[in-house]
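Field log, afternoon session.

UNIT: design team B
ACTIVITY: writing a sequence onto a fixed backbone
BACKBONE:
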């Protein structure tokens, strides 16, 4: 990110650790999950074959995202208001065993799946899944579950509802959502820097020591007759801890719990520890520090429309200066 870039305006602080996703890929005709969440463990390097006319081996920096146990505890049905065009929650179907285990006490608008199936399912506008990730036991040190909502891709609403009913009360693995070589979008909250001045926050040049009594300040706040300070004028304020999305990151490997010895350094990842559950290796870096909650979604740009090419990995580093 370029400091002072208007592309990232406003630089306000994130309201919560769980980012909100406002758009989802349409996907194919068959219903499928579009996203899950995980926790950033750290970075490593891999040696893989790069695509091209002459494939060659190359070393790439990668990020490891640990995915804890994720369970589907409910189904949410939306209905669109004809007068306003806004959607609202019309009904919810819960798996009581999972819902009570994660601490849901009040189940408002709860109904039975059979009742929804009896009525016309096309009366609703959208079907989504309610999931909960339980990070207890992994290195995040968090004991309460993170609840989130996941969109189901597909064209037919009855097929989406039948797909959601099959997943209700079951555990979802990252291998059920993503494949090796697939392109994804990663949304997270960047590392917080706290209150920062204009030099650090925008990269403004320091003033000459003879010009004014101030050096680490901006030279001017704008035109004299403007009457107010413009919103694009660099000023001190919150730096970091912003919502950021990086598009078209490539999945290097979707690993299982049994494969963690292939990626864990001897002393564990810095500020995190050892990965003990399923994980995803993503090409490049992602926003946020270790233990940051990350939302992983199928790519909006649909770069895999012509097929997903598998990634051939020959080496994964477990030693280095940062490990």
């Amino acid at each position: 990110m370029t400091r002072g870039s208007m592309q990232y305006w406003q630089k306000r602080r994130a309201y919560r650790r769980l980012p909100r996703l406002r758009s989802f890929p349409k996907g194919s005709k068959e219903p499928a999950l579009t996203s899950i969440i995980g926790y950033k463990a750290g970075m490593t390097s891999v040696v893989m074959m790069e695509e091209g006319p002459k494939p060659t081996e190359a070393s790439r920096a990668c990020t490891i995202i640990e995915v804890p146990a994720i369970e589907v505890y409910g189904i949410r049905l939306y209905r669109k208001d004809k007068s306003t065009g806004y959607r609202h929650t019309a009904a919810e179907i819960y798996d009581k065993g999972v819902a009570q285990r994660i601490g849901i006490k009040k189940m408002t608008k709860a109904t039975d799946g059979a009742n929804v199936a009896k009525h016309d399912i096309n009366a609703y506008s959208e079907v989504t899944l309610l999931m909960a990730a339980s990070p207890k036991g992994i290195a995040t040190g968090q004991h309460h579950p993170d609840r989130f909502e996941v969109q189901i891709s597909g064209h037919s609403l009855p097929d989406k509802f039948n797909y959601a009913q099959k997943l209700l009360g079951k555990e979802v693995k990252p291998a059920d959502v993503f494949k090796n070589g697939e392109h994804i979008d990663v949304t997270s909250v960047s590392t917080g820097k706290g209150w920062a001045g204009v030099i650090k926050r925008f990269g403004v040049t320091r003033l000459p020591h003879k010009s004014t009594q101030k050096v680490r300040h901006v030279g001017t706040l704008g035109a004299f007759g403007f009457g107010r300070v413009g919103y694009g004028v660099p000023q001190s304020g919150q730096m970091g801890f912003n919502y950021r999305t990086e598009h078209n990151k490539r999945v290097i490997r979707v690993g299982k719990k049994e494969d963690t010895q292939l990626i864990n350094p001897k002393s564990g990842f810095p500020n995190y520890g050892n990965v003990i559950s399923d994980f995803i290796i993503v090409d490049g870096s992602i926003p946020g520090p270790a233990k940051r909650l990350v939302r992983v979604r199928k790519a909006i740009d649909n770069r895999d429309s012509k097929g997903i090419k598998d990634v051939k990995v020959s080496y994964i580093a477990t030693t280095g200066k940062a490990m």
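LOG NOTE: The chain has two domains: 26-189+245-316, 193-221+229-239.
NEXT ACTIVITY: expression trials, pending approval
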